[in-house]
Amino acid sequence: MRLSSLGTANRTARAAETHPLTWRLRDDGQPVWLDEYQSKQGYDAARKALTQMSPDEIVGTVKDAGLKGRGGAGFPTGVKWGLMPKDESLNLRYLLCNADEMEPNTYKDRLLMEQLPHLLIEGMIISAKALKAYRGYIFLRGEYVDAAANLRRAVIEAKAAGLLGKNILGSGFDFELFVHTGAGRYICGEETALINSLEGRRANPRAKPPFPAVSGVWGKPTCVNNVETLCNVPAIVGNGVTWYQGLALAGSEDHGTKLMGFSGKVKNPGLWELPFGITARELFEEYAGGMRDGYRLKAWQPGGAGTGFLLPEHLDAQMYTAGIGKVGTRMGTGLAMAVDDSINMVSLLRNMEEFFARESCGWCTPCRDGLPWSVKLLRAIELGEGQSGDIETLERLCRQLGPGKTFCAHAPGAVEPLGSAIKYFRSEFEAGIKGTGDNRKAIKGVQPNLLDQRW
Description:
Layout: H1 13-18, H2 34-39, H3 44-52, H4 55-65, H5 77-82, E1 94-99, H6 108-115, H7 117-131, E2 135-140, H8 145-160, E3 176-181, H9 191-198, E4 222-226, H10 227-239, H11 241-245, E5 257-263, E6 270-275, H12 280-287, E7 297-301, H13 321-325, E8 335-340, H14 345-359, H15 365-382, H16 390-400, H17 410-424, H18 426-430
Parallel strand pairs: 1-2, 1-4, 2-3, 5-8
Antiparallel strand pairs: 5-6, 7-8
Helix pairs in contact: 3-7, 3-10, 4-7, 6-7, 6-8, 7-10, 14-15, 14-17, 15-16, 16-17
């Protein structure tokens, strides 16, 4: 089964079965407000969940469907929900929506929040019933001004219609929902840093255990899910496990569909809802249209700046968690970036590592000191002033900042693209080392910035 791209004109009942996330989108790009959303089966799944299903039945349905987190980690959602305590006396529970979408080259959640705000709200209502949570927060990236306005309007509409608040749909279930805009920190994408920020604290990750399911926001049981993850829940509850598992293509171990995209100098950059298991080549060539005339694909990242670089020969990999894992990196957010042959990889990595160094919370030493160190070395190599051993030092930093070596996943994600770039494009790094006979004085267009003042 092939799924068409976003913006297809004639979305029918069949489209509702194949495009659970996007079939309600308007062709003019305007938000789908409550009346139109309800005319397109909106809140039908919430009504079913609240009046016909127990919390355990909802959790079991999501677990059996095989829904995995769509924020990048890919942890099974039903399993995460099952970690919440069973003790009925713990009646103060929270559901947090992680909408702090600050991963460079990622914009999927923005589309859903700006154009389908009620889909997210419906997903949170069902999820809150499953978790027995009485209050929810959408922790939104502060720069998403339009998304914040649309979500707040949708919350007001839902509350006026009896879909939020006390005794929703006469079911006896109460759920309040609030939109909270953050101050703009990448680290808030880490769930415990998000919780600290929501509480008004510095956005540092917390030690785990205890996990948020035991002690989260204000010390109460808390579940944190990504926007796209929550938006999958209504269709799973409404259409069932068998239907959801049948959406993915043969060979995929992940179920359902995924918002995937391609940016860079491609002919048709964009975002599409596609089945897990589609090849990166089909995404790149048939949907993104391949490279623009005059450009050649040099490398690509499968899912945001925190994923490793791959080569054109890796395009036959299937887009699902293990499929991308087979070629040496992670699927991440599923929004790929094409790097064309005019780009110097040293300059690209220097730019990336500056971002990651700036966004480090500074809580642990490897991340706080290691990322600025990588920037210093990369800038020297970029200017043709690298020293013998600098590349080996960068490789050592990639190991020392890897998984399990730091307090959270920020640094491992930051060095993954660096390590892969050295692996595949080592000669470009070597060209910036003094005494190699091939180094340049400077790469054209390099400009000093504030980081230079630290060294």
